[in-house]
From TrEMBL:
Pfam families cross-referenced by the UniProt entry: zf-RVT
Organism: Hibiscus sabdariffa (roselle)
InterPro entries reported in the protein's UniProt record: RNase_H-like_EbsB-rel (IPR052929), RVT-Znf (IPR026960)
Organism taxonomic ancestry: Eukaryota, Viridiplantae, Streptophyta, Embryophyta, Tracheophyta
Domain (Reverse transcriptase zinc-binding) ranges: 54-140
Name of protein: Reverse transcriptase zinc-binding domain-containing protein
UniProt xrefs under PANTHER family: BNAC02G40300D PROTEIN (PTHR47074), POLYNUCLEOTIDYL TRANSFERASE, RIBONUCLEASE H-LIKE SUPERFAMILY PROTEIN (PTHR47074:SF48)
Stretches assigned to coiled coil: none
Length: 318
């Protein structure tokens, strides 16, 4: 009984309490009014309401506030992850559960089944896609360091903010986790939407390459101050009878892989040839792409009649 801890003079029995409770609790009790009989019997009360009366609305407000406070740091962490903006946007949408999964499609009455089309293992919501689908489980079995949680929100926010993982540099886990989640989603979309999809590189390998590129890009960004100049530019057609080709390419400086794409248009802007190619090496794939495409011959014919104007941001192609 609490009353047993009060002396005859109406004060806390500190001699008895000192043996039972830590000093921090005793200090707290010293600032708490004593239980006095004249104040009536103790009754349970709802501490989050001024009148101590329980209301569902106040319970909801408390829960929402607690949840927001708990995850507040991870919301801001998403935007500071050292990954491309598209990955950050993906994680933001994931945290809001706004992806158009089968569960969401059924809810919007644009699909009749919410079952996962890859594993048929259950309703396909974002939790299933990133955690429980067999395709996701295969990955997480290989990637060590995942924070485990019962609840999807706890799992997501816990991993985004997690910093200390064995064999992973401090602060890097959130980046790794985000990249793997993003690649899991991208692969699923390709498998479902692209009938000709062939997985040439596993999500694990692709993720590890991508993470290396992110780290290299960010270390370069922080070591060399870069000036950014922006200007708007519009396509301008070639002179009459000529063909204009716009070509650009990208090269991975880590392994030399390259991809190139281009379009060829006449003076009216009509596109009669477009071509893309990936997986080549350095700039030689540019010539292969243009010469090897079916429409490449037509480009050659037109060029022989008039002339060709080239525009590219990748000088090695020329
Ligand atoms: Zn599945």
């Amino acid at each position: 009984m609490v009353a047993d801890m009060v002396t005859a003079t109406g004060e806390w029995d500190s001699d008895r309490l000192r043996d039972l409770l830590p000093s921090t609790v005793l200090e707290y009790m010293a600032a708490t009014p004593l239980p006095l009989a004249r104040l009536g019997d103790d009754v349970p009360g709802w501490r989050w309401d001024e009148k101590r009366q329980f209301q569902v609305s106040s319970a909801y407000a408390v829960l929402m506030e607690v949840g927001e406070r708990r995850h507040a740091s991870s919301w801001s962490k998403i935007w500071s992850l050292q990954v491309p903006q598209r990955v950050r946007v993906f994680m933001w949408i994931t945290a809001l559960r706004r992806h158009l999964t089968n569960v969401e499609r059924v809810r919007r009455h644009i699909a009749s089944s919410d079952v996962c089309s890859l594993c048929h293992g259950g309703p396909k919501d974002i939790d299933h896609v990133l955690r429980f689908c067999t395709k996701a489980c295969e990955l997480w079995r290989c990637v060590l360091g995942q924070e485990v949680a019962n609840n999807f929100d706890e799992w997501l926010h816990g991993n985004i903010t997690r910093s200390l993982v064995a064999n992973v540099e401090r602060g890097e886990w959130g980046m790794r986790f985000s990249v793997f989640c993003w690649l899991l989603w991208k692969r699923r979309c390709s498998m479902v939407l692209d009938g000709d999809f062939v997985e040439r590189e596993s999500v694990l390998d692709r993720g590890n390459h991508f993470i290396l590129e992110c780290k290299a890009a960010y270390s370069q960004l922080h070591s060399v101050p870069m000036a950014v100049h922006r200007r708007e530019q519009w396509w301008e057609g070639p002179q009459r009878g000529w063909v204009k080709g716009n070509v650009d390419a990208a090269v991975n400086v880590n392994d030399g892989r390259a991809a190139v794409g281009g379009v060829f248009r006449d003076e009216s802007g009509e596109i009669f040839c477009r071509s893309t190619s990936g997986g080549g090496r350095t700039c030689c794939c540019g010539a292969t792409t243009v010469g090897g495409s079916k429409d490449g011959r037509r480009v050659g014919e037109l060029v022989s009649l008039g002339g060709m104007e080239f525009s590219t941001g990748f000088l090695q192609l020329l």
